[in-house]
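Continuing the batch. This is chain 6 of the set; chains 1 through 5 are on the previous pages. Same settings as before, nothing changed between runs. Recording input and output for traceability.
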Amino acid sequence: MTDRPLKQIHLAAHFPGVNNTTVWTDPASRSQTEFASFRHLAETAERGRFDFFFLAEGLRLREVNGLIHDLDVVGRPESITVLNALAAVTTHLGLAATVNATFNEPYELARRLASLDHLSGGRAAWNVVTSSDAFTGENFRRGGYLDRADRYTRAAEFVQLAREFWDGESVRHSGPQFDVEGRLSLPRPPQGHPVVIQAGDSDEGREFAAAAADIIFSRHSTLAEGQAFHADVKRRLAAYGRKPDELKIMPGVTYVLGDTEEEAVERAAEIRRAQVGPQTTINFLEQIWGVDLSDHDPDGPLPAADPVVDSTLVQGRTRLGDPLEIAARWRAVAAAKNLSSRELVIEVTGRQSFIGTPTTVAAQLDSHVQNDAADGFILVPHLTPGGLDDFVDQVVPLLQERGVFRTEYTGTTLREHLGLPVPGRR
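Output for chain 6:
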């Protein structure tokens, strides 16, 4: 690390409740659909002076063998609807919605996001996601039509058109994905363009982020992996005439706090066992093996048979890779550490990034940012809606004492929180 000024840490709050990592059995767990839950987490994040509040999105309930996994809850109100309501009860917090570029249209979405930006006084953000999943597409007229290779082609053209609409000028466009002519029925948004977030980790995804995104939501939470990802993505920016600080890298991370290191480690283990119970273990195995494993003992060894490639048993989940390669890797880990199926799933799906006392966790977060492994973090709590209460009460003051996190908001828009310029008109 050099003698450069301390980098300021950016923080965002991810609302839990879209997968099994939410501990629904905790007595403090509440609804993932009631407005009171969204309000609690948003107000906690604003009290902690976070940059923004982040909502994921699911367009169809995931299924295994035709059945919905009842501990894997994705059903909740539509993201922009929730954020418009939160705009009325917050004053500074950015409001980020995940919206699919495959199953929406540029004008319609540009108008909805511009509306949120106006109603919130310049706090809107869009997390751009894509899909080539025919199962999800069955909910739409064009179900399943988009080839996987065309996902980013459509997304790039979609973002380009949305930005043209946000600029308020007449739009005339004829391209591979869209043929439109018109102009937005609203004035230019307060931020110029709402902040654009992108979450792809493939080479295509990294290049798309370098060209079009303001934030990249990464999955690299260890120091070495984060530094490699940070360096790779930042070096791509120059090709698009952009400076390194014009794209913020914010991995999704978890944390567990304790009064001592030992207590935190013990609590983390308890949370992981609650997140990966017997039913969830079988669900993960079926995702890889592609066969009905309802009779499999989750506390026994991994299945002896090889996975069925191209199985359609599990619907609505992102493909993790080649099932045969994954099974071989999992078997090697299980054999080396003498793990049962459940212990193995806990081992390979663990996302607890920072575990320790508040002092330890604050130091680790700061170290990652100062050593260019990240520009900030999207915190993914394990509890709805009070999962960030202890972080805001115990860790944020320590980051403020270090001089690496704001004590008060100095701007009113999300771009101001992030240190991003207002885009010029195209």
